[in-house]
């Protein structure tokens, strides 16, 4: 009963975790592409709702919450820049774009509010903010870093970086079916020999070679393999006349190096005897 309760609780937690992802791909994205982007977004599931604050000064703070609301006062906003008394809403999570590379994932929030009127480079348009997630095996906390702030940027946008281990799952996309099959086979064989070995040794009191389980069978297989290899790969039958034990010829082909040398020496002897009448 207890067990069931625990399992149900865990399942509910997992479901809640998945559901809490408030990032919605922007409606300008075509449906097929949307599906792909939601697939990429799953990379961030382990850190949904994690909060990070970047305090540059007492009156200059960025607050980012991964795909959840950063402040109850602003619905659907994951990223807020507080500068003095004003809040710029940098990241509307209901207008997200997701792009991916081998070791990184980028969230782009469109439709930033609070910049357009204030800054010339925005020229009246809404800005965008980018948050680049990079793989870092050692990093298990969400920590916002600034890469390109608003003043350094040429366009009405900003770029931030979060290094985190969860992004590393992008580069090791699991094992292939073949590899898994091979590993399972290896484990089965390994446990078969280990258990067999201990069974024969401890229960049957076997010693030495006797400890190998089903040894007759395995040695028979060994013999059969050896015979097979002999039949297929041995030179005796397929290498022609040279392979059958006749004297190695001095021309072309393979002959062991010192046999060749002996042959050469003989030839030299013959030549010199021809030269001396
Ligand atoms: C996103 O959420 C905001 C509320 O914060 C709302 O005003 C806006 O219409 C929403 N946009 C979309 C595309 O749903
Ligand atoms: C938040 O965004 C969703 C669409 O993604 C929208 O339906 C909802 O109305 C928004 N919330 C508010 C308070 O505007
Ligand atoms: C600003 O926007 C106006 C139209 O909205 C456009 O004519 C003008 O070229 C833009 N300026 C810059 C620098 O992009």
UniProtKB/TrEMBL annotation:
Q: Where are the transmembrane segments?
A: 175-200
Q: Which organism is it from?
A: Homarus americanus
Provide the leader sequence positions.
Answer: 1-20
Q: Which GO terms describe its cellular component?
A: trans-Golgi network
* Keyword set includes Protein biosynthesis: no
BP GO terms, sorted: protein targeting to lysosome
Q: Which domain of life is it from?
A: Eukaryota
Among its keywords, does the record have Oxidoreductase? no
> What is this protein called in UniProt?
Cation-dependent mannose-6-phosphate receptor-like 1
